[in-house]
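User: Teach me something about this protein's shape.
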Amino acid sequence: MRRFVLAAVAAIVCFGIAQTARAATALHVAFAEYQPLGPETAKGVVIYSHGRSLNTEDMDSPPPAYLATLAQAGWDAYRFDRPTREDSLPASSADLARRVQQLRAKGYKHVVLAGQSFGAFLSLMAASQARGVDTVIATSPAAFGSFNDSYDTWQMNATELYKHLKALSRTRVLLAFFHRDDYDPGGRGARAEEILTVRHLPHLVIDQPRELAGHVAAATDLFAQRYGQCLTRFLDGARIDARSCDTINAPAPEHGEAVVGSGS
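Assistant: First, the predicted structure itself:
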């Protein structure tokens, strides 16, 4: 009987430790098959921030397919995992900004923050807080609810986005907005383009591309197939036009060819 009790206590303790460990925010390697090359060998590091759901743990969701494309191209890819109960815009963006500084201190020459939905807002906010964020990839940015569930705050997915774009300096920005996204108040692509142009920030705005719809369209294989090469070139420093970026509209450029467009 005593052995049974001790075993039960040990199981509870181990479960508690596991839960505690899981509760902490952390950087995890995004793909087991793409282990980090390290700051001396990799092009740089990409930190992907997932979204935030009220009823599920988004850190259990797989990373987007385009992140694997970047890893294949020589970027070290990590996930910034945050349990829902600890996740907030102020705390998580500050946490992410600290991790940027840590990775810079390790010797990474280029740091990219990528995020989906809530994670897109975190990436934009951290980029304005931390020195040394070269590029932000923000897909379907949303942190204030959807049209159906949070109508009173839903418009803030636009107004707060514009505020954070205006706070950026010396950062390249790639934004993606999609048709039939219930979190999108509409018109964000054109307004974001205006803000980034006025601020003279190199940028690429993918706005309502055909055959890609819904809030998580950027996580799909189709998005990676059509825009993966474009994202890679953008991270490498190319100036790219959104239309020529889509492989449906134009073939990939010849090796070494400069792609010049609205990202100037």
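Now, about its shape. The CA atoms of residues 9 and 15 lie 10 Å apart. The domain at 25-236 is CATH 3.40.50.1820 (Rossmann fold). If you'd like, I can walk through any region in more detail.
User: That's plenty for now, thanks!
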